[in-house]
């Protein structure tokens, strides 16, 4: 049986993402969480005598995460969407390539860290994870952020062409099948779990379907919400949360 090909998000979502990703609480808080993990991974690679860490953001979208990753090492991005890459280049991120996560246009053992930030749910997961492992150097890390729990399925999953949402156990099993060693894994965004659950149930009951859930927001509270969500970074480095809207995971190529 042939594998289903990854699909781009609906075209309008890239323009919406670019418009909000610098300020929307979800993106701001997630970048704070991701940065705390990336910092530790890159510091460890340097302590092992490695040169400047080389990072790859798979499914780099319109470049918000790639811009952040560039603070920690030599960062590159890859995405299946030419439109997304145009947004990256427009913000000055030239080191990007067009390519699918399941057939990455890079050589074996090229990177110290690969990130898949809300990307794996778009993929034939094991094939995509094996590609991530292939391009990692020995001792390199894969950092994933994925949506959790199918009962949280919402409009954003539809417009983003997600294939699934994961439980922690499901994601860990997929990573192990792909040959990774799990170092850290936890649910994330427990803070806004109940509001998001209620909001998605309400949309189902009323039939409300915004062009993107990124448009459903209280602008004046962005800063506060972003700080609250981002504050989970302290807990996530030290303990596993029992549930959340997402999952964060660090896995190692041995």
Please state roughly what percent of the residues sit in beta strands, choosing from under 5%, 5-15%, 15-25%, 25-35%, 35-45% or over 45%: 15-25%
CATH homologous superfamily classification: Vaccinia Virus protein VP39
CATH class: Alpha Beta
- N-to-C terminal Cα separation, in Å? 31 Å
Which keywords apply here?
254 residues, alpha/beta, Rossmann fold, 10 helices, globular, disordered N terminus
Sum this structure up briefly.
The protein is α/β, with parallel strands linked by helices.
Q: Can you walk through the features of this model?
A:
This protein is of the alpha/beta class and 254 residues long. It has a single domain (11-252), classed as Vaccinia Virus protein VP39 (Rossmann fold, 3-Layer(aba) Sandwich). The protein is built from 10 helices and 7 strands. It has a 7-stranded mixed β-sheet with strand order 3-2-1-4-5-7-6, sandwiched between helices. Helix 5 (125-135) links the parallel strand 4 and strand 5 (136-147). Helix 2 runs parallel beside helix 9 (222-230). It is globular, with a radius of gyration of 17 Å.
